[in-house]
Design goal:
heterodimer, A: mainly alpha, 14 helices, B: D-Maltodextrin-Binding Protein, domain 2, 3 domains, seven-stranded mixed β-sheet
């Protein structure tokens, strides 16, 4: 039983077989039930399509690329770290540098040059896809700092594919690209891709196939076994020296990365923050104590002086206040007698005022009624004087007569009330009001009389006109002979 | 679960199918049993509800133990990758057929088919008339082909770019030096109808594939009408490089296989219009498979039925490729399958 991943692995192994079978490779898959399915054979176009390149040159290319990658990434990561206050970003950047550079050197010092090129291509491509295509650079470092990583990775990617293009045909490049894309599709959540190798695509059999490809001589010149072993020893030594020269830098970076990661841990950040707080508190307390030691004697002295001065001032105030109180008490006694007398005199006056006010009540009511009547009359007069209202009530002289009667009655009542309240009538204000009301009423009565006279004359005139017109019509009728006598 | 293993879980069905083949005397299309039937040897075959093969619209492959031989496939690496992925399943079904797959590039495939050095010529583009003539003259028989998967070329831009669609004429104005479809060259986004500031004044940055790739050839043939590309096109070695270049440059426009654009969050494929007024079409499964999308392409295999050198093993492998089993592998590889009716038509054609 094979699950999907296993199936894909098997398929990709076979795909890898095709990819790597540029030379004279005949390989049999290890699937138990496949007996005759083989991978072949002659590459018909490679020799003409690709320039000649031997394994030593390919090895040099991959080593040079590893150094180049280190330079590119070191510059980019320095740009991210320098002046960056974010401990987490610094730690991540350092970790990225250490992991990917170590991985590049690991690949460059591996056994087979062709595998080196494939693995470098895969590692760089996947790393760039995670950090560029999936936008991790911007996400982790922000747009400005992230762009530095993007630029460096793009450059590295272009260079590694240029190397791959020296050993693979365009179709094979496409096939490798497709394999990488397929792996990425199936592992979208994986972000640490620097240690993904061709073997991860093609299962462990990929290595064997690479070895077969190398021995097959399609890519490289065939070597006899003795020469091959000698060359292998020499290569191993070269790789040891190559890596040894770079090891101190890598170790240094790794140590720095460990420190940065420890510093970027949440617990460390919290501890450092707490330490900062405590230190600051201790400093504050110390300076406060020192200040107090300096200030306390002066403070005590000035406070004591202020207290004594206040006591002196209050003693004087108390003495003065006692004298004042004595004098006020004597004055108060005399004043009390006067007040009693005043109160005795005021009592009858208050009663008189009360009586006067009681008497004034009916008078005020009469005046109010009079005012209301006057308003009514004035309203009527205003109606008469204004423009004709087609919906207005017909003229009724009885209303005016009633109003005049009300006004007269109100005046009479008011006069009676005034007669009754002599004290009120004696008041100049009341007198003024009465005079004003009387005057206003008289004016309105006069105005009303004038209006009534005008109305009477108008009605009389209209009646006379009608009479004359009727008379004239009668005469005309008779003259025309339209009457019964004609 | 492996495809063949699942098939083997139902031995009655396999036996019945074999009996049917033997009784017919030749290979033919086997429709999966939908209801209980009595086979030619009297065995009742019950429908297996748990076996999803029965629900497949593709023809069922019937192994033929009598066929033996070797099938040599030399051509496109892209198609070769698919053929190699078929190896495990085909090897189990037909253990006596050897399969050899060699990547030489599409350009070499016709010559090798003509010389008889290969039995099948996998290609990621259509064979040119002169190539067909070469093969037919050398082999003395007609060249045939089957499509095993479909793909498309996407014209894509940065995800922030406001443009959504282009006509073929516009794309020719972008990439073509000669502009054989007419119109002035498109140098800034405003030339393509973009009015949003500041995009309208943004200078186009062009990306494409190398001249030896299938994508390059298709764009040149279909869009540029065999005209030359502008010199300012930045040629990337592989499709994923094109996608990444566009993802990092807001003014970029480029072309590559639609497969690489589908899950690229920072790159967007444009809708294309084949001819004026025909309507803009997005590169979807349906439009690519049906050919409505103007830059659809087929991954195909060319072959001949040479009466002097008959090769039943090659025909059997072709039947496997368009069968339910073969198309399942295509789907597992993330490629687009051919349409089921097309698969049946190929199956009938191959049975003749």
């Amino acid at each position: 039983m094979m699950n999907r991943t296993t199936w894909l692995r098997a398929s990709l192994t076979l795909a890898a077989a095709s990819l790597l079978a540029g030379g004279c490779v005949v390989s049999r898959t290890s699937a138990p039930r496949i007996t005759k399915a083989v991978t072949s054979s002659t590459d018909f176009s490679r020799n003409s399509a690709l320039e000649k390149i031997d394994s030593a040159e390919l090895n040099q290319l991959s080593n040079a690329f590893a150094d180049r990658y280190r330079t590119l990434m070191e510059d980019a990561i320095s740009a991210i770290i320098v002046g960056n206050p974010n401990a987490r970003q610094r730690a991540l950047a350092n970790r990225f540098l250490v992991e990917t550079t170590t991985s590049a050197y690991d690949i460059a010092t591996s056994g087979d040059p062709f595998s080196q090129v494939l693995d470098l291509t895969i590692m760089i491509t996947l790393t760039s896809q995670v950090w560029i295509d999936s936008n991790r650079a911007d996400r982790e470092f922000g747009p400005e700092r992230g762009q530095v990583v993007v630029t460096a990775l793009r450059q590295a990617r272009e260079e590694v594919w240029d190397i791959a293009a020296r050993v693979l045909l365009p179709d094979q490049l496409s096939a490798l690209d497709f394999m990488i894309a397929s792996w990425r599709r199936n592992n979208l959540g994986v972000e640490d891709v620097s240690f993904v190798r061709f073997d991860d695509f093609a299962d462990s059999r990929g290595s064997a196939l690479i070895a077969e490809a190398e021995q097959g001589g399609g890519l490289f010149q065939p070597l006899n076994q003795a020469v091959d072993e000698a060359v292998a020893y020499r290569k191993a030594l070269e790789r040891i020296f190559f890596l040894a020269k770079r090891a101190p830098t890598l170790v240094n970076w790794q140590a720095q990365s460990v420190i940065d990661q420890a510093l970027a841990k949440e617990e460390t950040i919290r501890a450092l923050e707490n330490l900062d707080t405590v230190t600051a508190s201790v400093d504050t307390i110390g300076s406060t104590v020192a200040q107090l030691a300096e200030d306390v004697p002066n403070i005590v002295k000035s406070e004591r002086e202020a207290i004594f001065a206040e006591l002196d001032r209050r003693q004087k105030d108390i003495d003065g206040a006692l004298a004042d109180v004595k004098k006020i008490a004597m004055d108060a006694r005399a004043a009390t007698d006067n007040v009693q007398k005043t109160l005795d005199g005021v009592a009858p006056t208050l009663k008189e005022v009360q009586v006067t006010l009681d008497a004034a009540q009916p008078t005020l009511a009469a005046v109010e009624r009079l005012a209301a009547t006057s308003e009514r009359l004035l309203g009527k007069v205003a109606e008469m004087s204004g423009p004709a209202d087609p919906n207005a009530k017909p003229f009724d002289i009885a209303e005016y007569r009633g109003a005049l009667a009300d006004a007269t009655a109100a005046l009479v009542e008011a006069n009676k009330a005034l007669d009754r309240g002599e004290s009120l009538a004696a008041s100049p204000a009341i007198k003024g009001i009465i005079q004003e009301v009387t005057h206003a009423t008289e004016e309105r009565i006069n105005s009303l009389e004038t209006t009534l006279s005008r109305i009477v004359w108008l009605v009389g005139g209209v009646a006379a006109g009608l009479l004359v017109l009727a008379f004239a019509l009668a005469i005309a009728y008779r003259r025309l002979g339209g009457g019964p006598s004609a | 679960m492996n495809r063949i293993e699942r098939t083997n879980l139902n031995p009655l069905r396999t036996l019945a199918a074999l009996c049917a083949v033997l009784s017919a005397g030749c290979l033919q299309v086997q429709e999966p049993p939908r209801e209980a039937v009595v086979s030619d040897v009297g065995i009742v075959v019950e429908p297996d509800a748990t076996d999803d093969i029965d629900a497949s619209p593709y023809p069922t492959f019937v192994p033929d133990p009598s066929i033996k031989g070797t099938v040599r496939c030399v051509g496109s690496s892209s198609v070769g990758l698919i053929l190699n992925a078929m190896r495990a399943d085909f090897g189990e079904a037909e253990p006596d057929i050897e399969l050899e797959v060699v990547s030489s590039g599409s350009g070499e495939a016709p010559r090798l088919l003509a010389s008889g050095e290969s039995d099948l010529a996998p290609m990621s583009r259509a064979m040119k008339p002169e190539e067909i003539a070469l093969v037919e003259k050398a082999r003395g028989c007609k060249v045939e082909h089957i499509d095993i998967a479909v793909d498309a070329i996407a014209i894509c831009v940065n995800h922030r770019n406001p443009i959504t669609q282009l006509s073929m004429k516009d794309i020719d104005r972008v990439f073509g030096r000669e502009r054989r479809r007419g119109g002035p060259p498109a140098l800034i986004w405003g030339d393509l109808g973009v009015r949003d500031e500041p995009w309208d004044q943004g200078k186009l940055v062009l990306f494409g594939m190398g001249p030896k790739t299938g994508s390059h050839g298709i764009v040149q043939e279909v869009i540029l009408k065999a005209g030359a590309f502008r010199g300012s096109v930045n040629e990337e070695p592989v499709a994923s490089s094109v996608v990444q270049a566009i993802a990092t440059n807001p003014n970029a426009i480029g072309y590559c296989s639609a497969y690489f654009v589908e899950r690229a969050p920072r790159v967007r494929a444009l809708l294309l219009e084949a001819t004026d007024g025909s309507g803009y079409v997005a590169p979807t499964d349906e439009s690519i498979r049906s050919g409505r999308y103007p830059l659809s392409r087929s991954l195909r295999i060319y072959f001949v039925r040479d009466p002097k050198r008959p090769n039943p093993a090659a025909l059997q492998f072709l039947r496997f490729l368009v069968s339910d089993d073969g198309q399942w592998v295509i789907g597992e590889l993330g490629q687009r399958k051919i349409a089921p009716d097309q698969a049946h038509a190929y199956f009938r054609k191959l049975a003749k």
